[in-house]
Write a structure and sequence with these properties.
Blueprint: E1 3-8, E2 11-15, E3 23-29, E4 32-36, H1 42-55, E5 60-64, H2 70-73, E6 83-87, H3 88-108, E7 122-124, E8 127-132, E9 135-141, E10 150-154, E11 159-163, H4 177-188, E12 195-198, E13 203-205, H5 206-232, H6 237-241, H7 259-284
Parallel strand pairs: 4-5, 5-6, 6-7, 11-12
Antiparallel strand pairs: 1-2, 2-3, 3-4, 8-9, 9-10, 10-11, 12-13
Helix pairs in contact: 4-5, 5-7
The structure holds zinc ion (ZN).
Zinc ion (ZN) binds next to helix 2.
Length: 291
């Protein structure tokens, strides 16, 4: 059920069949492997483990966690021999949010009973580099989807792991749409890229990378404008629900049909933000004109 794909001589990806097409990446070097994120369920990450041990007769030396969200980090405990790398903020968010959420999820879902979090101990902020077995992995902060996202560029293979900065539909709940814009523009500057691995869904190939990034930026503009229009005209739920995903440039069947749900969440998140920031402004207005 895990889909494995060799996207470059020394790079594999593994895609979850159980949850939202999450991608994990594997860079294979003569000195061991570097795993970029894990898959949501133990049975899926165990397929990566078997592949590394039995097929490659290797081991994972480093795990890079691209952000603190559950669907990307739950499998790290299966590689106790590996050092875990992540953003400084990821460590904090995992302690504050991912860990308590996991405790609750374990109660509900027996498949997660054995999962425990491994926190990153090697921490990056703006940019950092890992070198192993002749490969160079450059990690850069890429906030927006979440404040702690990092992307990973495998220089020798020209493969860019964009994490959830790039998804079949941009998603920024509890993140920040302006930061996401900046991070998407920064991705456009990373060249050359033969393959761009999104946090979820299909790999983008060289010829489609720039236009896909432009399409993501366009979605953000369209959805934000549409929500602002509703807000400024005093509209509510009915008008928000009428903001069509395809009019914003994203297919409703994207991400295995999950896209409309994420689109709706984006809309309500933006609307809530606009409301709050306006209330804030109203509060900070001077009560009477100073003389
Ligand atoms: Zn994700």
């Amino acid at each position: 059920m895990v889909q494995r794909e060799r996207i470059a001589d020394h790079v594999y990806i593994f895609r979850s069949g159980l949850y939202a097409q999450v991608n994990a990446g594997l860079v294979v070097t003569r000195e061991g492997c570097i795993l970029i994120d894990t898959l949501p369920f133990p049975q899926e990450t165990k397929e990566i483990l078997r592949f590394v041990r039995q097929r490659l007769r290797s081991q994972v030396r480093y795990i890079i966690l691209t952000h603190s969200h559950a669907d990307h980090v739950y499998g790290a405990y299966l590689f106790p021999e590996a050092d875990v790398i992540g953003h400084l903020l990821s460590r904090e968010l995992m302690i504050r949010q991912t860990r308590p959420a996991l405790a609750a999820a374990r109660q509900r879902n027996a498949a997660l009973a054995e999962v425990h979090l491994r926190l990153p101990t090697l921490l990056t902020e703006r940019e950092a580099t890992v070198r192993l077995g002749g490969f160079t992995l450059i990690m850069r902060h890429s906030p927006g989807h979440a404040p702690d996202v990092i992307n990973v560029y495998v220089k020798e293979e020209k493969v860019l792991f964009a994490s959830d900065t790039v998804m079949p539909i941009p998603y920024f709940i509890n993140g920040n749409i302006d930061n996401l814009r900046r991070s998407l523009r920064a991705l456009k500057q990373i060249v050359p890229v033969e393959d761009l691995v999104q946090g979820h869904g299909e790999v983008l190939l060289r010829g489609e990378v720039q236009s896909a990034l432009d399409a993501q930026l366009e979605y953000l503009d369209k959805v934000e404008n549409a929500v602002r229009e509703v807000y400024e005209s005093g509209g509510g739920k009915a008008e928000l629900n009428a903001i069509d995903i395809e009019a914003c440039g994203v297919s409703r069947i994207a991400l295995g049909g999950l896209a409309p749900q994420l689109h709706r969440a984006n809309i309500y998140f933006l609307f809530g933000q606009m409301k709050r920031s306006n209330e804030q402004k109203a509060k900070s207005l001077p009560k009477k004109q100073a003389v």
